[in-house]
Design a protein that fits this description.
Helix 2 packs across helix 7 and helix 5 packs antiparallel against helix 6. The chain contains 9 helices and 4 strands; from the N terminus they run H-H-E-H-H-E-H-H-H-E-H-E-H. With 209 residues, it is of the alpha+beta class. The chain has a 4-stranded antiparallel sheet, with helices on both faces. It binds flavin mononucleotide (FMN). The site of flavin mononucleotide (FMN) has 11 residues, from strand 3.
Length: 209
């Protein structure tokens, strides 16, 4: 299958088969894809919580419009934005760049200034809005990678983020929920995945200049 065929195959799954679990390798591949998602300036201003625990998922479902994907998929992936992005966060990132690439810390002074300038020129509200956007890019990469791997996923923003934060203890970790995705395998009788995809025609969606 070409990548386009795989994107045709993918669907926002609403009914997962609860008996089908991702192997450790499949889960790790999905997490690798998320890890490899691009981010503005390379700053991954979010964390990703992998929820498998049944009791926790029941609680999350109750504040997630009772969406069955939350409990029935193999795993629930919660993308949570960092709420305390400060100079320290930027400096830690530059440390990581230096360590990973084996370059002198001083050689990154210009880049560090750019990163810290970007962080410090924004209000907390702007930083959070930006972090949510970065989290959604990671979600997009997850959905695409899952399709490529023949794994199903169901993105969701229908949930009470404040309640998610409470149940997962995210506030104390300096995090707040952005968006979530269930991952696993579709049930044979999932209805929506059998329907023809509805998309705006290319003539309306694209403007060629
Ligand atoms: C960010 C985002 C949030 C979504 N939230 C929900 C949701 O809460 N519940 C749901 O059933 N589907 C949700 N969807 C799925 C969309 O309805 C679905 O992607 C769209 O109808 C297109 O269908 P397809 O993905 O199967 O091609 C969401 C999709 C995205 C990208």
């Amino acid at each position: 299958m070409s990548i386009i065929d795989k994107l045709q195959w993918r669907s926002a799954i609403k009914k997962f088969d609860p008996s089908k679990k991702l192997s450790a390798g499949q889960l790790d591949d999905l997490l690798s894809a998320i890890q490899l998602a691009p981010a503005s300036l390379g700053l991954q201003t979010y964390k990703v919580i992998v929820v498998e625990d049944e009791e926790t998922r029941q609680k999350l479902r109750a504040v997630g419009y009772d969406q069955p994907q939350i409990t029935d998929a193999s795993h629930l992936i919660v993308f949570a934005s960092e709420t305390n992005i400060d100079s320290n966060f930027g400096t830690n990132y530059i440390d990581l760049v230096a360590k990973t690439r084996g370059v002198a810390r001083e050689s990154l002074a210009g880049f560090e200034q750019m990163v810290l300038g970007s962080i410090n020129s924004r209000t907390d509200e702007q930083k959070l809005a930006s972090s949510h956007k970065q989290a959604y890019i990671a979600l997009g990469v997850l959905l695409t990678a899952a399709a490529g791997l023949g794994i199903d996923a169901g993105p969701m923003e229908g949930f009470d983020a404040a309640k998610f934060d409470e149940i997962l203890g995210l506030k104390d970790k300096g995090l707040t929920t952005s968006v979530i995705a269930a991952v696993g395998f579709r049930a044979d009788d999932d209805v929506y995945s059998k329907m023809i995809k509805v998309r705006r025609p290319k003539s309306e969606l694209f403007i060629h200049v």
